User: Fold this.
Amino acid sequence: MYFAVTTSKTPTATRATTTTAGLRRTPLTPEMAPAWSHLHAIIADDDGGKWKPTPTELAEELQPSSTFDPAQQTWAVWSGEEMIAFALAGVRSAPRYDGTNSAFIIGGVHPDWRGHGLGSELLERTERRGAERARALVPGVPLVFNAMTTATAPAASEFLTDHGYEQVRYWFDMTHDLQGDFTDDPRTQPLSPEHSEAVRLAHNDAFSTHWGSAPISAENWHRLTRSAGLRPDLSRIVVEDGEVLAYTLVSSNLPGEAYFDLVGVRGGAQGRGLGRAVLTSGLAAIREEGSFTEAGLDVDADNPSGAGRLYTSAGFTNAAKTITWEKSP
Assistant:
């Protein structure tokens, strides 16, 4: 999932004379997921983005937790019965591995309603609430704001630059047509419930040196692994002496499309080809299942572990690029 704030300085011609008088502002609720999903798709189409979350995905995002209160950390703006803008302030329960804490900003404005100040209003709300929640949960730690945009949305980049954000990282969205020579590696096995906690521990170890990462709590891992889109039968792990050494978590939320949500190898197990084993075994399982036409994943362009090279050699190709932005309060 990508965190994006998208807006523009000038309104489009279709509603250039429309004012913001009479607009309603409410928190987001699961019942609003269809309208929210529709708005996401409109923004993605206008900005050239690939991610178009389903109502089910978005409803799951709105489940309360110890770090997230939708009534306090989300906003929707309505024109009549149409959602025209949204924002969400997400926070962590622990510092990132680099010793900082982050509040991540998600938001968007309907293309026909840009240029009326809604983006600036929502950004200010999310920054203020995100800072409050982040500092309450992880006091005394330097805080940064994060947002993400597609590389094909220059107005969003200009908007964030105007509000004090700087580009700090690039990511590639990659896709695979499921063609090629790959088979199920015998060292791997499907994901099973009894290994869920061991996979979480492996993930926290694998990503401990990755830029911007933080340990995933048991609570948030439980939410992730209970997602309606998760496909344990397509996910793959390598287990030795009861310890998970490598893993892929695969999900599917749209017909014909599978997605590698997470791919990782414990630091002490690097160099044994286990990353390739779980990746190619996952691809083999996806192809064998028979209903998929493509698989996707995203990768940090500066990943020091060589993940980009692994994915390219396995047959993935770059389909889009996203940008991470940061700002210190």
